[in-house]
Amino acid sequence: MRRIRFGVAYLLAAVLISVAAFLSGADPVFAVILLVLCVLAILVQQSDEQSGPPTVAPQEPVADRAQEPIFPAILSTLQALDLPVFVIGRDGMLRGQNRSAQKAFGELSPGQHISARWRSPSILDMVRETIATDEPNQIEHSERLPSERVYIVRIAPVPLLEERGDEALFLLSFRDISELRRLDRMRSDFVANASHELRTPLASLRGFIETMQGPARGDPKAQERFLAIMLDQANRMSRLVDDLLSLSRLELKAHLAPDQKVDLVPVIGHVRDSLAPLAKDLEVDIRLHLPEEKAEVLGDRDELVQVFENLIENACKYGQEGGVVDVYVRNPPGGPVEVSVLDFGPGIPAEHVPRLTERFYRVSVADSRSKKGTGLGLAIVKHILTRHRARLIVKSAVGVGTEFTVRF
Ligand code: ADP
To answer: What are the Histidine kinase domain coordinates in residue numbering (predicted)?
Structure first.
């Protein structure tokens, strides 16, 4: 708009000059030439202006921007983190907290000293030291209430701020490592249990070898008896190692859902055949109740064989006194495929039922050992079923019997 207004003014000036030249007695042709020259000069000047350097929007000076308060920007950045973070000033007072911190520790009002929330001397000493030295620090801190939690608490200064002349700020963050600690504890318990299970047969083997080298050196009858026990112990150790390897292989692929179509009817038939010698020894009759049609699920055939072998073998061993094990395969239209294994043995007291799938958990250690158990059978079953997105349902009544159902 400004440029158009200037154009009209220039044109008026050119017309006035030409008219003045004409009135002052100049040749009319000269006046017209003068007008044309003026108009040309205006046009040339305007086109120069248009093709000149591009105009740049006026900017705020950089120095002004540096004076903008930076605290809201810091706080909104912290909102994007899922780590609880508190912002504190050099006076140890709280300036703000992100949403994760609110969720983990509740709403704390700004202006409150951090000692109002954390009385732990180690946290307060750490904060004091960082405020004095500007060096980051971290410690491990545990809280008992409302539930047992372990945190790595870290404090670090925000370095740029004081250079800009802003207030010094420090970030106090809490990394929750409770789950990591729980897994560590489980792993070390597991290693301790596995070593203990292996140590017992090893000690017994060593004892028999020493006896055969010493007191039983010239006694072939005793040696024969000891060798039979030693074979038993060696078998127990290899069963345990096999089960441990199965478990670790299953853990490696726990997140991969199997995708083969497996018909459970022939699988159950195969398991019954493979357990026939054991059932015969224990004088247990395994009765199958199979549907006419297929009972297909998405699965890994070998793993499903292992699940039903473990369940039916347990039913034969622990339910031996019932003399019968019933296996039902159900494939109701529109409903989930189910396999139930029922025995009529002593049953399992209710308090043990929730823990049966824990590694090395047995209702009676002596009973399990005498039946060649490793204490890992149901843990393996649970791992396989988790990978198959299937459930294990246990119903048991003392003196009546036990029913293990796998629901796909
Ligand atoms: P194990 O190798 O000792 O058999 P499992 O993990 O297969 O280990 O089973 C854990 C425990 O569950 C067994 O030691 C036994 O006490 C109990 N148990 C499993 N199945 C049955 C059952 N059908 N009847 C009674 N108790 C059972």
So the answer is: 193-408
Please give the distance, rounded to the nearest whole angstrom, from the Cα atom of residue 229 to the centre of ligand 1: 23
- Locus of tokens 């296996």: 327
Span of 45-54, 59-68, 137-146, 226-235 with lowest mean pLDDT: 59-68
How far is residue 408's CA from residue 406's CA, in Å, rounded to a whole number?
Answer: 7
At 147, list the tokens: 């539930």
Given ligand 1 and candidates 362, 364, 376, which is best to mutate, with the most ligand atoms within 8 Å of its CB? 362
Query: Does the C-beta of 401 come closer than 6 Å to ligand 1?
Result: no
Summarize pLDDT for 199-237 with one digit per residue, the tens.
Answer: 989 999 999 999 999 999 999 999 999 999 999 999 999
**377 touches ligand 1 (CB under 6 Å):** yes
pLDDT in tens, 208-218: 999 999 999 99
Helix (H, G, I), strand (E, B) or coil at 154: strand
For tokens 């907290």, what's the residue?
Answer: 97
